[in-house]
Specification:
Layout: H1 2-13, H2 17-28, H3 35-46, H4 61-72, E1 83-86, H5 90-93, H6 95-103, E2 107-110, H7 120-133, H8 141-153, H9 157-176
Parallel strand pairs: 1-2
GO molecular function: nucleic acid binding
Organism: Acromyrmex insinuator
Domain Mos1 transposase HTH: 4-48
């Protein structure tokens, strides 16, 4: 909420979204909201939005998600065996998500900010997905979702396991060099 108030304040002062984001990075450092989030809220405030709170959402997404996971993957019924690679995305840091993770004793692995080299989706999953979808055009969101789902399901489990082994090796290397850059 505090950072949204800062965005609102800067928007009312006539500062651009870029200026707002740069100043927030100086103040909040690694805890700063992402660029896209700052730009979205800045635009909302310029369009006359007054409230800092999120819009109300229907349903209980966490409970629905847990129920769906239990139906589709009964072997994942015990969340104590789960780990979340935490990249500080707003969807992971909201109060309801943190409470759910704590209540279900999900192990949270904090991810260093701005480290796509240590994010399996960024170095493994997304490139494979992009390669499969490259050059294709889609008429609507359901078609995109269907094509993306098919492309993801086509990735062999061994490749996913290899991605997480690479993640483990990269994390160990990062620890060895005390967070310094490495190739």
């Amino acid at each position: 909420m505090e950072q949204r108030a800062v965005i609102k304040f800067n928007a009312k002062l006539g500062k651009s979204a870029s200026e707002t984001f740069r100043s927030m990075q100086q103040v909040y450092g690694n805890q700063c909201l992402g660029r896209t989030t700052v730009f979205e809220w800045h635009k909302r405030f310029l369009q006359g939005r007054e409230t800092l709170e999120d819009d109300k959402k229907l349903g209980r997404p966490i409970l629905r998600l847990m129920g769906r996971i239990h139906r589709i993957r009964p072997e994942y019924r015990d969340p104590e065996n789960w780990s979340l690679l935490h990249d500080n995305a707003p969807s992971h840091t909201s109060l309801i998500v943190r409470q759910c993770l704590a209540r279900n004793r999900v192990s949270v692995l904090n991810h260093p900010p701005y480290s796509p080299d240590l994010a399996p989706c960024d170095f493994s999953l997304f490139p494979k997905l992009k390669l499969k979808l490259k050059g294709r055009f889609f008429d609507d969101i359901p078609t995109i979702q269907s094509a993306s789902t098919q492309a993801l399901e086509a990735i062999p489990q061994t490749e996913l396991e290899h991605a997480f082994e690479s993640l483990l090796n990269s994390c160990n290397k990062c620890i060895e060099v005390r967070g310094q850059y490495f190739e």
